[in-house]
Structures are given as structure tokens and as C-alpha cells.
Amino acid sequence: MKVLIIGANGQIGKHLVKLMQETESIHAKAMIRKEEQAAYFNNLGAETVLVDLEGEIEQIAAAANDVDAIVFTAGSGPKTGKDKTIMVDLDGAVKTIEAAKVAGVQRYIMISSFDTTRTAIQEAPESFAPYVVAKHYADEWLRATNLDHTIIHPGMLTNDEGTGQVTLANTVEVGEVAREDIALVILETLKQDSTIGKEFQVVGGTTPIAEAIQSI
Prior knowledge:
Residues 7-192 form the NAD(P)-binding domain. By secondary structure, the chain is α/β, with parallel strands linked by helices. It is built from 8 helices and 11 strands.
């Protein structure tokens, strides 16, 4: 299986590409925005493709024309304004969903926010609300498609070393989770067809990731 990683140069994306390249059956195609970002992925033996997420759907579709699945891990980041949140977390996500349709890629995994309900939007701090809004509508767009999708809602992300263990269910108590563990969750999600059409929240915990994925 070849997987296009959108947001590959992000922290989750880098962990995910590394994990994929260590497997025999899943290989990463890293979508990057700048040529200088390629060295990390080249050193892992991963394929790269130079495409700006703020570009056209056709460019993203061309990058996806030889893959079996797409993983969206891109994010505008906490230091950008509302404009980048709209362009990346909403418009960028929707364009990749549409690009999947154009390229005939049926499997799509979305890394969303922990809670993207209308209630979460209303309760979010003013500075965070635009991000939740963007993720809410991107998730809604994906749910309305016929793609074989999975939506992953991670808790508060940390750069701690992954433990390989999580708490994972439709709804869990809010908590932290290592980015490395989210990458492992994505990898196991790709391996399990039972995750198609599902979405779940995930935080740090005590259940081995493969076992947690099998239980949903």
C-alpha cells in the first residue's frame, strides 16, 4: 500500500512517514511544500512530491494518482491567524477530499480536533474557535462523501515519547496524547478495514494501540 501523507513535514507527519518506511507493506509518499524539506524523507527512503496545499485541486489529485490511501495531517499551527486556519484546516482539507475523488483514491483518513461538535465551537476560547469551526466543517464535508473514511480526534498533543498505549473510543475524557502515538494510531487504522466509516477520540492510556483499534 502506498499512502499520500498531506502535512508530512509536520510533527505527526514525520513520525508517520518514519513508521511507514519501517514496515514492509505500507510505504509513504510525502507531500511537501518546499524542496528543502525533502532531505528528511529522502534519508528514510520515502518518495516525495512538491505540492502547495493552498494550490489547486488538480495539483493535489496529480500527487495522489498512484496511491491507495490519503492521510490528512496538515494544520495551520497555533501561531497563524484566522486566514491560514481557513486556507489550510478547512479549504486545504476539503480540496484534498475532492482530489481523492478526482484521483480515484477511496481510502481517506482525517486527523481532526478532539471535539468538533457545535457545542465545542460555542465553548471554545475566542482564539481557538476558528480552528474548531474549520475542523467541524472539514469533518462534515468528509462524512458526506462516499469515501472509505476514518476521522481521528486526538487529545492535547505533546512531543513526549510514544508509549504505544492509548485510551480510544467514540468518546473519552479529555487528556494528552503523544504525537508519536497518534502516528501509530494512523498506521494501525490503515491496516484495519473495520475502521472504515468510523471516528473516535484518542488520548494517552494503557491499551496497546493495535488492540484499541481492533475494539472500535
